[in-house]
Design brief:
With 166 residues, this protein is an alpha+beta fold. The strands form two sheets. Strands 1-2-9-4-7-10 form a six-stranded antiparallel β-sheet. A four-stranded antiparallel β-sheet has the order 3-8-5-6, with no helix packed on it. α2 runs antiparallel to α3. The longest helix is centred in the C-terminal third of the chain and has 18 residues. The N and C termini lie far apart (37 Å). The relative contact order is 0.20.
């Protein structure tokens, strides 16, 4: 989280940067966190370098991509694939809260291809908060043995569930 004047926005969120396994071309968990209701929350990037997976736990938000605005609300889980510009932001009257993870690597790209997640913004009604809790517990845990494999399997499970959700 930034301080006033350093150019980083400050939002009502907890955010964790995962600084292990950064050099893996196969799979890397970049960061994860939880956003609490914040009417001023907006993220806008010309090109995202990570794949973003988020789950709205309450409220309403919007994803803007290629001139299309999509509304997301409680229970919606979405993947924003690496490589294109987007903006997402909270509703001013009913700002959303959400959990999120950002990942990258060739395995992530392969999973998305394999499961046919070909839209840049892919949305399903699915609760992934238990996966988020497990990712947080694993990433912040002291037992480092096989953490990378556990994190990879948890992210794969989210993508699998999203691809197979009705």
């Amino acid at each position: 989280m930034g301080k006033k004047g350093d150019g980083m926005p400050i939002f009502n969120e907890e955010m964790y940067l995962y600084d292990k396994n950064q050099n893996s071309d196969l799979f890397h968990l970049h960061s994860f966190g939880r956003l609490y209701p914040d009417a001023d929350y907006i993220i806008s990037l010309k090109e995202n370098s990570n794949t973003i997976i988020e789950c709205v736990t309450d409220g309403v938000g919007y994803i803007e991509h290629n001139g299309t605005v999509t509304t997301v609300e409680k229970g919606d889980c979405y993947i924003i694939k690496q490589g294109s510009g987007y903006s997402y932001y909270s509703d001013e009257k009913n700002p959303y809260s959400k959990v999120w993870v950002t990942v990258y690597g060739s395995m992530v790209d392969r999973w998305l291809d394999f499961y046919g997640i070909d839209r840049q913004v892919y949305i399903k009604h699915l609760d992934i908060t238990s996966y988020y809790s497990q990712i947080k517990q694993t990433a912040l845990g002291r037992d480092m043995l096989d953490n990378e494999k556990k994190l990879m399997l948890l992210v794969h499970a989210i993508i699998f569930e999203m691809a197979t959700a009705v």
